[in-house]
Predict the structure of Large ribosomal subunit protein uL4.
Amino acid sequence: MEVAVLDINGKETGRKVKLSKDVFGIEPNNHAVYLDVKQYLANRRQGTHKSKERAEIAGSTRKIKKQKGTGTARAGSIKSPVFVGGGRIFGPRPKDYTQKLNKTLKRLARKSALSIKAKENSIVVLEDFNFDAPKTKDFINVLKALGLENKKSLFVLGDTNKNVYLSSRNLKASEVITSSELNTYKIINANNVVFLEGSLEGIESNLSK
């Protein structure tokens, strides 16, 4: 699969890059994509939720009324869950939501996600560029030139580029990452994936293993 290389003005440079069939042209495995996205979202959960149960509530332990003769239900402690301010029954407790997947499955999921984007013609290859200083306006101009101003876009750089990253940071619909940070969730979540030329070699070599 050949894709034309564009410049930051959205025009073809006259060069083309050939995307590896082993990475961008496989038969997508939807279940692998599902498992990898599920793991990514699960691993982002902090799991610090907690509510106080009966034994953890601060309060008197004396019996609040006599056992019989009141005409109401018996009650032993003000910390009972049936009273306002009492403990919570079966409340949430801290939990580790971390999941594990083997490397082969994660690699398959990423290749599947990239192949899905390739079939949808949602992959753009851009020549390497840089800004003289971090300016959101400059990055917006690149988005306009590529027709991605109102779409979710993911820019994949070969190496860390502070000026490009800071220029995009205020834009909710766009995200800039390096090739080493690429994952299945980010690929699927974006409408278009924009690869800078310098990122393709590293991605293809890592996913072709």
